[in-house]
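Exam prep: given the inputs below (a chain plus tryptophan), describe the expected output before reading on.
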Amino acid sequence: MKKISLTGIKPTGTLHIGNYFGAIKPALELAKEYDARYFIADYHALNTVKERAELSALIRQVAAGWLASGLDPEKVIFYRQSSVPETFELTTALMAFTAKGLMNRAHAYKAAVQDNIEKGDDPDAGINMGLYTYPVLMAADIILFDSDVVPVGKDQVQHVEMAQDIARTINFNYKADILKIPQAAVQESVAVVPGLDGRKMSKSYGNTIPLFAPEQELRRLIMRIVTNSQAVEEPKDPETSQVYLLYKLFATPEEREALAARYRRGGMGWGEAKEELFRVANRELTPIRNRFNEIIADSKGLDETLARGAEKARRIASQTVSRLRKAIGINF
Ligand code: TRP
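Solution:
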């Protein structure tokens, strides 16, 4: 029996190539080794996305983006959090075993409070209960599917530790292994993707290349990447060039070496280096962009895919919840 991995995807922004190399590709690799489950954390997104049309569009876009990037819904389980109502029943049960003090220590909540204090606002200004109890909903996502490992970035480790803490409290109270204790798998080696301005590519810096940018826009954005003022004939250091660091992500090992040699030799200008980057980027992104456009155009097909995933997910979820209901004395 394979171990179970679970990946939660918060649909709060349009996917960019930083997400693709930093999150999507490594997460899809898990399907080789694990019984992999992926879900769109739409109720987590609701904490920040309050505009109906925007939330609906983001859910569909992000789902289509993962499918276009190679997620195979026949081989893994792919669903929306909101399609599994057991999540919310489990959340309520977990609440009874979650210390309020534990939530007070959550980094995201603490950062929001700190922000308010620095601005001279009320410490809880603008903080909703969704943000405050975010870790409990996330613990329910994880525990519901008997997850062995949860691959996360460093910023999410504390949340997985809280899920462990809550699950242990329940097992201890009923003196039985009712809930599986999940482990965080911190993804150390994932690529850092430089953005257009040289900083890490991130929605909050406004320096992204959208994953589904049409060819013309992809080209235009690549031509905008900041470079230094070295002349064409000067030898250049590939490893300190954002253009080369992006090129490396898309190129084959042979292509990487060949272009690095051209950098070091001199005689190649930034315009030419960018043309090379555009060529390899467009080669990898064209099929993904085409699949994405097909999936988005067929919203009924996409909804059916997600509905089939939800059915598989609910079969597992209902077992966990009925196990817990029995243990706590609500089913008799
Ligand atoms: N909190 C995660 C993020 O911001 C998303 C998420 C929600 C998640 N539930 C999860 C991740 C369960 C892993 C497991 O990225």
